[in-house]
Amino acid sequence: MGASVAVELVICAWILLMLAADLLMPAAGKSSLWMVALAGVAIAATLLVLQPQPATPQVLFGTWLVDPFARLFKLLFLITAGVVIIMTRSLDTFRHLGAFYLLLLTALLGMLTLSSMNDLLLLFLGLELLTFSLYIMASYVKTDARSVEAGMKYLILGSVSSGFLVYGIALLYGFAGGTSFPAVHAALQRGEVPLTAQAGLLLILAGLGFKVAAVPFHLWVPDVYEGAPTPVVALLSVGSKMAGMVALLRVLYGVGLPLQALWGTVVALLSAATMLYGNLAAIPQTNIKRLLGYSSIGHAGYLLMGLSPASALGAVSVGYYLVAYLFSNLSVFLVIVIASHRLGGDTLAHYHGLSRRSPLLAAALFIGLLSLAGVPPLAGFAGKLFVLLATVESRRLWLVGIGAVNVAISLYYYLMVVKRMYLDPPLSPSPISVDGFTTVVLAVLLLGIFAIGIVQQPFLRAITSAMRW
Amino acid sequence: MITSMPVPVTLVMLLAPLLGALILCALPQHRTRLLRGIAVGSVSLSLAAALYAIFTYRTAAGGYQHEILLPWLNAPRITFHLGVDGISVVLALLHAFCAFTGVLISFAIKDRVKEYFIFYLLLITGVFGVFLSLDLFFFYFFYEMAVIPMYPLIGIWGSDVKEHGVVRFSKEYAAMKLTIYLTLGAVIALTGLLWLYASAGARTFDLIEVQRHLAASPLPLAAQRGIALLLIIGFGVIAPMWPLHSWSPIGHAAAPSAVSMLHAGVLMKLGSYAIIRLAVGLLPQGAQAWLPWLAGLCVMNITYGAFVAMAQNDLKLIIGYSSSSHMGYVLLGIACLTPVALSGSVLLMFAHGIMTALAFALVGHVYDQTHTRYLPDLGGLARQLPFIATCGVIAAMASSGLPGLANFVAELLIFVGGWTVWRFAVICGVLGVLLTSIYMLRFVRGTFFGEPQAAWAHVRDAATAFDRLPYAILIAVLLVVGCWPQPLLNTIDAGTRTLLERLGPPSPSTQFADTSMKP
Fold this sequence. Notes:
Oligomer: heterodimer
Helix content of chain B: over 70%
Strand order of the largest sheet of chain B: 1-2
Shape of chain A: globular
Distance between the termini of chain A: 20 Å
Order of helices and strands of chain B: HHEEHHHHEEHHHHHHHHHHHHH
Structural class of chain A: mainly alpha
Largest sheet of chain B: 2 strands, antiparallel
Helix content of chain A: over 70%
Number of strands of chain A: 2
Strand content of chain B: under 5%
């Protein structure tokens, strides 16, 4: 029993540890707190890998699932949190570092909950745990007006979406007479589904659409991405989006499969709008974080596209895309955290001639962005290919066409960043050095990008075995 | 069908430049000689493998040879499958020649040498991959891999195109336009390939297996037509088919010489090759529905390209528009789809590739020496550049289809083979040859002949044997193939024969074309 929630217990313990450290430690000692937080994440990851697969996946009165799906995504969430912690290392501006890592760990706890949930109430709990932590983290740099504005916008729009979610949960509860996933699934399967229950599912979809930044629930994205501290943006863009997709997979595939004709079409339409809007609106951006905000909307579109076929291959393709996206986006953000710190700003003009000042950072950003665009032999290409493949098998050719054209659109604005780094003369000739530890982390992420893009077989096998429930 | 060849030539051809690029990544920036040496070494290996492949290709047996098959992914089934048939073995050789001479010409690059050769070798790898892949996944994989390095290559080492000293368009603009056009074409084709994958129902990307599956159970005609249209448009962008050609001349003009050589010499052939291999090869009935349209468009290619080339003042733009005009002949050969015309089409891909590589190399030399490509500023250079001027005259003669050079044979085959099918298009094509000689003579006269100008007294010819080597190789190939085309044609025929057998019995209009018409 304890083994099935060991990972979460470790994170809970570390949350308390961080709280104590924040209160008791002298300010000077806090600069090494990132190591403590990283150690907690590492211990949790070790426990997760060693965790035995229980005979029945349902534990804790059927509300908690310990299946390969949960295990895969928990591992991905822990990796994300680890890299985000490493990102904060170089930022001295965070004054209450203890509290910051505390929030990071509560957000992580929320994401872990979402991977294992088997009940609508846990869906709400996990999502709120994650979002509340992010509200605070987004406005963490209190001296920066943009950061405060970012947190405020995120809070207001997020609350509205929570309202959608709760209303949807209530409607499904009213229909099924229970909140556990199997109960709702059984009720949906029994035949005629009333309009209220259909509306309930769609409202949950809307609430989660906010999390993954799907059009038309994307309005918070550009401002929050621009204003929030960069490590938080990385967490938002990778962790929070992945959490939303995990919840969507659990809800739509685990519960809503009987209604697939309904949500399949809705998701396909949302996907087309999201891809087109995100990628077209990214073109005129002049701030790299804003640009990545719009680009992340575009990626949400591809992820939804993978969901729309409601097939096994669709789920696998979403999983593959998420893994590819995680590696590509984390390496991009790792570069941006270092570069914006040294270059003194986030506008694209700051990146002029980066390749001459730091060939490593420029090459890493080049590879990361091309992977996001979906250029072979990089990870993003394989992800996009599987998503398109799943969609073409569901006979939505129009969606495949839109998805394919979006590759070319996104390539344009990614290459505009490359142009600034490689073609334009640098603002100042002084070289930018990168410390050894960051270089190693960056190299591992880049190797991952190549591996996922070239040798698909082992990754595909692992993801396929995780996508059965 | 894995033949037990002693040397995995296809693998060597593909991996040698890739390995070269990886080694370059690890070397220090300032060791210029070493960097160049590695680049030359890796492409020499590819060239040797390509020569070996074509000399050991058994034309009597035909089909795919030198195959290498490696399972890559189980479901969906993707195989790392390399191999060559009579068509691709010739095009791989063309690419090997262009790549080898291109690397030699690249010695003129002085700035950021390491990065340049890394991107250049990646480009070479990608193009080899397309010609050698027998798997739809890897076909697209290498195709897109060949497109992306063009962006930094043009953007960093290219040059703006100027008129009267005023920038007409910048290299950044040309690079971006090229990349986006080609990627857009690629994804349109990708949509077609995925549609093909889904509707064939074989659940495999292996080209041979798909081919076998489609031959046994052909797709409904509507689906065939739809997929073939996507493939022809998608790959037509890079071919470059009028009116999707506008990326191409400015891309040529802005790129550094060695990149233009590969770009015009080989990259454009990827489009026509893909149309032959995938659209015609896999969906014969579907592709045939669009051939009348293709015939009409290639007339536009030929005449429009030629007229625009006449009006240009930038040397590279002249060659660039002439390339898109000459690719019209290649497309015409495909549109006719008779054995003779199709073989002529493949031979023209080869001949034009070599010819245009020669032309871009010598224009590059002129530009390096004079720092201008503006025709009114040039003139009388034959006095200072006797060797380059001779090369220029030969390139112009080849381009205008003079007998004795490879282009003549190829164009003749297309005209003879296509006469009964698209007579009007063939007449336009013959007129196009006339137009070609007009702009090529203007190019030669304006650059090399006329009054010698004092401003160019200092320019230097390609004097050393090493400098002359790339030109000599390319001219030798043009002459050998021009005077003695039969061996190469036999190899090409081995490829086109199997392709056309799949089309079924020839319709009455194509029966005229029989092999006795070959020179």
